Amino acid sequence: MYVLHYSPDSASMAVRMVLEELNLPHRLQLVNREDGSRDSAAYRAMQPLGLIPALETPEGVMFETAAILLWLADRHPQARLAPAPGDAARGDFLKWFFYTSTNLHPTLLQVFYPHRLIGPEAADAVAQAAHARFVSYLPALEAAAAAAPDWLSPHRPTILGYYLAMLLRWMGSFAPDSGLRIDPADYPALHRVLAALETRPAAQSVGRHEGLGPLPFTAST
Ligand SMILES: N[C@@H](CCC(=O)N[C@@H](CS)C(=O)NCC(=O)O)C(=O)O
Questions:
Q1: For 100, which DSSP code?
Q2: Which of 2, 71, 100, 179 stands 20 to 30 A from 46 (CA)?
């Protein structure tokens, strides 16, 4: 039995959707982000930085969203949520999956939490700069998605699709006058992936439980 340490509308969301997508029995363990439980020795033993998510598996604890998603896809290859090792498309998929986890995700965190990097006097400038960098990453991804490869397509769910959908949901959540909002409709191929994914039972079910609204990925448009 998997145990997902989660918090609503946090990075556990994509993992939870993929667990649902794979119909894997799992228990949810809410991590309270306010009461310091992320800093407990027990939680740090699972996730050394105290971040969400962590996934307990029969073979040990997994952490880092991208690692968990890839591990799940590889463990359950019949669902084809990612090209399997040995598949000719594996290389292309890996490039864009790591592009997302090493560029988009950390940069997004700087947009949301600039004060973790710098004092209040420069926090706004850091957020704006990180936003510009995040935007600069999107045209290449949009071009990759335009070819609707099996690993990022509106025709099938994939771990890269869920990962990107989550990140773009958050970037779409800023107020229009903040200068930080990204409208996924500006990226039509990616938008098609998000619009298809958000209708899936897995996304809808998690969306209901976590209060993400009826269109969890494109509502900002
Ligand atoms: N690189 C980590 C980042 C995870 C992360 O930043 N999680 C956020 C939630 S979205 C978190 O735990 N933040 C702690 C907090 O509440 O401040 C991963 O991909 O798992």
A1: I
A2: 100
